[in-house]
Amino acid sequence: MDRNILKTRVSSFTLIEILVVVAILALLLMLTAFTFRGQLSKGKDAKRKADLHKIKIALEEYEKDHEYYPPDLDSLESDYVRQIPQDPTTKQPYEYTPEAEANYPSYYWAFTVLEKEDDSQIIELGCSSGCGPTEEDAEDYNYYITSPNAPNPFYASSGYWGCVGGVCIGIGTNDEGRLECDPNFADKEDCESRCPERPCEPI
After folding, report:
1. Confidence (pTM)
2. Which of 73, 153, 157, 182 is the most exposed place for a label (fewest CB within 10 A)?
3. Cα separation of 101 and 93, whole Å?
4. For strand 154-155 and strand 131-132, is the pairing parallel, antiparallel, or unpaired?
5. Per-residue pLDDT at 6
6. In this structure, what DSSP letter does residue 189 have?
């Protein structure tokens, strides 16, 4: 047999073989990108939590010195933190809300948005559907820190309520699309009449 013919047969690939290799490479690239994006989100969320923890320490130090919380985060700069932390994605300061209409705030909330929506702390805070400083923006955030004496923030609701931490809050859904805890109530007043005797346990 001619050596050139044999060499051609050995070194050539069919179109189907090439397509299979390309598909496998594309799948591997997609999996790598998905994993990298997930790790990137975890890293950003860890920074958000660390930033809010740093802010919380500074706020408590400010309160010890002044016996009230500051009207804004800028009041912390230089004396309590070198620089006000900013969200790693938006590059904007975190949402800080002191006690409304108070010249000397006695409590505060500070909010952010975690990218990993299945973070266990979001569920613990009751923020699966969202939570915020007002009803209008309750869907804009899903994680917060607060002073020990602060009331609960406003919670966005899926239309159902659950008794979480002795308080009726709007509950969201889990990854399977089911309400995140049970028992749950379609009516807030019904929930309040049975809370805290019937706490909402995670599903």
Report:
1. 0.65
2. 182
3. 21
4. antiparallel
5. 46
6. H
